[in-house]
Amino acid sequence: MSDIFQSSQPIYQQLAERMKRQIIRGELSPGDKLPSVRETGLEVNVNPNTVQRTYRELESMEIVETKRGQGTFVTENQSTLDSLREEMKTKAITEFVQGMQEMGYLDEEIQSGLTKYLKEKGETNA
Amino acid sequence: MITLTDVTKKYGSKKALDHVNLELTPGKLIGLVGENGSGKSTTLKLIAGLNYPTKGEIKVDGNKVNRKIAKSVSYLSELDEYYRFFTVKQSIAFYASQFADFNEEKAYEILRFMKLNPNDKLKHLSKGNRGRLKIVLSLSRNVPVILMDEPLSGLDPMVRDSIVKGLISFIDLEKQLVLITTHEIREVENVLDEVVAIKDGSIIGHHNVEQLREEKHTGIVDWMTEIYG
Amino acid sequence: MNAWLYLTKKEFRLGLPAFLIALILFSGVIAAGIIAGNRLGFEDEIMSVTFMIVIALHTFFLAFYLYYSLNTERKRLHLWLHTPMSIAGLLSSKLFTGFVFMLSTLIISVILAMANLSATFSLFSQESLFNTLGTISIAILLAALFISAVFLLLWSIFLTFSQKWNDFFSFLLTVILFFVSVWAYGSFISLPFVQMLTNWGGIQAGDIITGFEVTYREEAVDVQTMKDATVFYIGNFVRDLILAVIMFIAACWIIERKVEV
Question: What pLDDT score does C214 carry?
Fold first, then answer.
């Protein structure tokens, strides 16, 4: 189970990242109640204190909100979710492009490669 | 809250602990790691009041520790010893009778979680199930301090996983402090709040695990390799 | 209190094998008596002796029981000692269960002996038989308790030694300590001053055996001297009782403070 997370990075950040992805993928919809701290901890084998910290982190980003006595819910604020989606996209692209550039690819090469890949992938899927 | 102030423990002429100072705060799962014979078990026994320091002082919640601290400390030994004539159910009833804070309802909940049969005799249990039962018995008490000496050692991965999951599910991290010694660091490294490393009877490191990852970009295993050098 | 009762229930179960061992031993002695009686004749006389042996063996039953029970706990001291209960509570639970086990076989043995003796020796009146066996039983129970207190103290001392040295050396040391203490205690209680304090409330042993002289009138002089020689003092009994309590408390103190898991 430990292979979900890298041991050299803070688990709470990795877990926050994981939950953001779940939200973007729609596994967690706006207004959904998050599992309790303990349930999440159990699911990913992580200390409930760490999960608590993740929830606080997400709360400070206004991605989730805690309602007293009811639990923690995914925000229904669409603009927050849109910007999360945008932010995650930018982040993924940044990582990808940085990787390519490190290997010495030029911007045009990256762009054309990406277009070609997407086109071929679209054909096979069709 | 556990405090060890300048604690030295000698067995005969052999020093098991050497001027140890340690402060552990509630609401945390703390791992005590180190090689065999480094003083892990001794530390736990001292906190449980089952051993006495040669020098120095140990306090749990402000009370000086002696054997009667069993009232607020739940201690799980590394030894695979039981009253083997009991059934699982009888063990639970016995513990419930001896410890006023023992929560029988919780015990049966953990029992179900661990998939143990209440009517099995202890002498017929597999080693893995005996390991699980120990967890049931020590986690079912509503105590401020739980001490677990090598709860994972010698058990197969399935059992270890169920025990780690048991810890996550049944420890009350609002109130309880859990101190656990283990060799299986990878198994528990994601569930520990803090890690204390001990070597030759001295504490050589005490960290918040997430902080370790955040500031030094290192996990417990790498950190240990580094400090044990 | 409830905790103690549950603990005692556990002790009954834990000590059961010791009881069974004693039962087998007693049965063995009785079986040997029956066989010997068949071979040699004098069945009734031999059986009387046999029952007396069985009754006498009870003197050591409690100490044996404690030895068995505590030796079993020694392997799992972390379980036995990890409890808010006092050591006195832990030990008294063992003493109590051992005592109940002991009483159950002692009563049976006494009844068997009584039936046998009254059938064999017509010279005893029913009353004196009852008195004799009753006195012997009480003496055995008290002796058993005293020996147990001695054993508990020695065991706690042995356990303390064994934390520093190996079992053999610790045992040796405990045995030496035992003999030195017995010698010292013996010298102490035979001091005239101590005797003066403790030799009160004398009971003539012969008073118990009523109707004995009638049959043995010719030897009345001898019986008289025997009677004089055998005087029990209640004062001595009180002295031993106090010592037993002190030893018990000392054992508790040692286990509480000195014994480590």
Answer: 43
